[in-house]
Amino acid sequence: MRKPFTHPTLVVTALLTAGLLAGCGSSDTTAPSADPSDSAGSGVSGSSTTTGPVSATDDTGAEVTLARPASRIACLTMICVDALTEVGITPVAYRDQLALDEHYAGPDADMREVRGGFGEENVEDIALSTPDLVIGLAGAQDGLRKAVERTAPLYLVDPTSWQDSVAFLRTIGDLTGTRGAADEKADAFTARVEAAAAERSNLTTLSMYGEPGSLGVDSVKTPVGSLLAEVSDYPWPAGNDPFATVAVEQIAKVDPDVIFAQAFSASDDTDPLSERLATDPTWAGLTAVKNDRVVEVEAPVWATGRGTISLGLVLDTVEDTLDP
Questions:
Q1: What angle do CA 161, 139, 223 make, to 5 degrees?
Q2: Rounded Cα–Cα distance for residues 94 and 155 (Å)
Q3: What does the pLDDT read at residue 24?
Q4: SS3 per residue for 198-253
Q5: Residue 17 three-state SS
Q6: Taking Cα atoms as reference points, which of 81, 77, 92 lies closest to residue 129?
Q7: CA–CA distance, 132 with 109 (Å, rounded to integer)
Q8: How far apart (Å, rounded) are the C-alpha atoms in residues 265 and 246?
Q9: What is the spatial distance between Cα 235 and Cα 229, in angstroms, rounded to a whole number?
Q10: Which CATH class name applies to 200-322?
């Protein structure tokens, strides 16, 4: 729902559906000791390590309590698919086409697609997947709570930093009884970021998206922006909107050394963003443009991924680009 649309995911999801494509909620979890004989359920590609009630508070302040760890989770946002993949669980339902990528659930995963516009998902599709937990994006899918909770509890997540994404992964571990696996992946990703931060580049970077006349920036109050701030000079504060609109003239005032560009639009024009801006003289005068350091990146991963797998892919690109 990035500006000038309401949020980046709205734009990217619409485009991908058309053919292209915290801290996190604080965990207040209780779980009795593990029962090796416990069966996880058809949504899990491993077994749950805990039984009994679990609870967590989501990013809207709503407490989600389950009688036992969830094994059948419907994902209305990609960070859900991302985190579940990290702990070895396949969602029973998905809405983002990125979920079918080999880095996540994969093209052969047995999942039901949830149809409908972003924030207006088909609740029947959710119900038919028979989940015991539904996970969505706060600020976008809040209005579904009443209808969704006729089927299963709804947990809403809204990560504003890479640390929030790590915290959400741990919460997923709590809610699914796989905290050990979640901690292992969370600790590994944190260690990777810390190692990259120790060799922080002095280059000024920018993550931007959109189309000419409708550009936006990932501020430091987004998972991608906060990650870039760890490993480079990233002078893009949030202001009133973590996904802020920006003009080429504003970019020129900072004049970044490296630009990571995500191209998407409301039109049929799918040319790279740098090519669509090439005739703008201000754009042509940017240091990153003159030095051929505008890197076109995958909008789905950068804009909708949000989880540690996605941020790892972002970091792969950033390190490859900034490595002298």
A1: 15
A2: 15
A3: 38
A4: HCCCCCEEEEEEEECCEEEEECCCCHHHHHHHHHCECCCCCCCCCEEEECHHHHHH
A5: helix
A6: 92
A7: 18
A8: 15
A9: 8
A10: alpha beta
Task: Reply yes or no on whether the pLDDT at 293 is more than 60.
Answer: yes
Q: What is d(CA 255, CA 83) in angstroms, rounded to the nearest whole number? A: 35
**What 8-state DSSP symbol labels residue 97?**
G
The tens digit of pLDDT for each residue in 2-51 reads 433 333 444 444 343 333 333 334 334 444 333 333 333 344 444 455 68
Domain boundaries, the chain: 8-193, 200-322
H/E segment holding residue 13: helix 8-18
User: Which CATH topology does 8-193 take?
Assistant: Rossmann fold (3.40.50)
Residue 294 and residue 257: Cα distance in Å, rounded? 9
CB contact set of 117 (below 8 Å; sequence gap of 6+): 14
φ/ψ region of 41 (left if φ > 0, alpha if ψ in -120 to 50, else beta) reads left
> Amino acid identity, residue 91?
P
C-alpha 254/C-alpha 245 separation (Å) is 15
Confirm whether 8-193 and 200-322 share one CATH topology: yes
